Amino acid sequence: MMSFFRLTGNIFAIILLFSLTTGCDQVTPGDLIDENTYIDILVEMHLLAAAKELDDDEKRFQAGQKAILAHYDISREQFQRSHTYYHRNMDSQMHRFREVQDRLETLGSELTDQYNQHRDSIRASMDP
Fold it and tell me: I want to staple 81 with a disulfide (CB 3.0 to 4.6 A). Which of 8, 10, 29, 57 is the partner?
């Protein structure tokens, strides 16, 4: 299982990638994704990116991205416009990315707790 420190490093690498690929568009898009939905999408995209490290299948990765955007009824172009808009204020964007990081860490802790509880229940059922 990938460590969360490695996942956190991946988050910042993705932030850098987004930084290099977006401009400083000052126009608010008419179809701007609300901030909470934007953060939800980023969390899911980061989970998908982490899964891609385990299974380097580009087709599955692309399909996963399409599925995430379809779930939120958002096009890739709409996401990119919203990302460009949100990214123009780096202080606010870093706050959003810290929120993404916090959510991922919380998910990791919850999964670890569930795993430990399941493991302990199996051990308890095996004890005479």
Answer: 29
Residue ranges in 31-89 assigned as alpha helix (H): 35-54, 58-71, 76-87
Q: Using CA atoms, how far apart are residues 6 and 71, in angstroms rounded to an integer?
A: 27
Q: Which residues contact 45 (CB under 8 A, 6 or more apart)?
A: 14, 65, 68
CB distance 86 to 94 below 8 Å: no
From residue 122, give the alpha-carbon distance in Å to each of 22, 74, 117, 125: 49, 42, 9, 5
Q: Classify burial at 104, counting beta carbons within 10 Å of its beta carbon; exposed 0-12, middle 13-18, buried 19 or more.
A: buried
Look at the block and give the residue holding tokens 């909470």.
Answer: 36
Cβ contact 118:64 at 8 Å: no
